[in-house]
Amino acid sequence: MTTPALLAYVDDLLTEPSHATDVAPACASGGSSLSPVSRDASPPVHVPALSVVAPVATEPSRPSPAQMAQAIAEKVATATAATTAPTGRWLRMTVDSDHYAVELLRVQEVTRMSPIVAVRGAAPAVLGAMNLRGRIVPVFDLGRWLGAGEVAPDERARIVVVERSDELIGLLVTAVDDVFPLVDGAVEDFRVPGPQRRNIDRAFLGIARPGNMPTVLLDARALFD
């Protein structure tokens, strides 16, 4: 295109506002005709979308069923110990050189040694049975049952008759010491929890120290189970 023709072409573009176009830059030496390029025809600019990664919420580790069961058992044991703390008056006894006590309300009477008839096939802790005013009462060696050795049936020995599950049983002990009161908060819990608990442990209620003398409190209802 010659220069006059190019000027005429540009003048036509300026005088026609409805055809708002851009002039493409001229080619260097080809002399080829210029074609108008529309503003709207410009290629869109692609902006990559930002990927937002949501933070992954980490849940706290949940305890196993065994841990949950153990936690519930500990709470129940704590609540039970708090609501059934031993109180009242207790009869203190001696087995060998150790001291034990049973709740006085469970004690029917204390007797000296009486004739005891052996029972064939009985457990090692069972000495036999005695006649208490016409009533047959089984007699147990408390020392043998506790694993402290046999109680010697001498002049100091006594049979403590206690009530257990609507029946009477006799406990052969080395001696009977005294009666002492027990108030709330005066008992140290030493019970064995969980699967290590034995049948004999159910009879242990705790340790009291009346007169600075450690005394194991026994539940008469759980003796010899």
SSE diagram, text form:
Layout: H1 3-15, H2 65-83, E1 88-95, E2 98-103, E3 107-111, E4 126-132, E5 135-141, H3 142-146, E6 158-164, E7 167-173, E8 175-182, E9 187-188, E10 204-208, E11 215-218
Parallel strand pairs: 2-11, 5-7
Antiparallel strand pairs: 1-2, 1-8, 3-6, 4-5, 6-7, 9-10, 10-11
CA-based shape: elongated
How many extended strands?
Answer: 11
Detail the poorly predicted runs.
18-39, 78-83
Helix content: 10-25%
Radius of gyration: 49 Å
* CATH architecture assignment name of the largest domain: Beta Barrel
Q: Identify the CATH class of the largest domain.
A: Mainly Beta
Q: What fraction strand?
A: 25-35%
Number of H- or I-type helical stretches: 3
How confident is the prediction overall: mean pLDDT? 74
Largest sheet: 6 strands, mixed
- For the biggest β-sheet, the strand order reads 8-1-2-11-10-9
**How many structurally independent domains?**
2
- Ends distance: 122 Å
Reported by name, the CATH topology of the largest domain is: OB fold (Dihydrolipoamide Acetyltransferase, E2P)
Helix/sheet category: alpha+beta
CATH superfamily of the largest domain: CheA-289, Domain 4
Along the chain, the helix and strand elements come as: HHEEEEEHEEEEEE
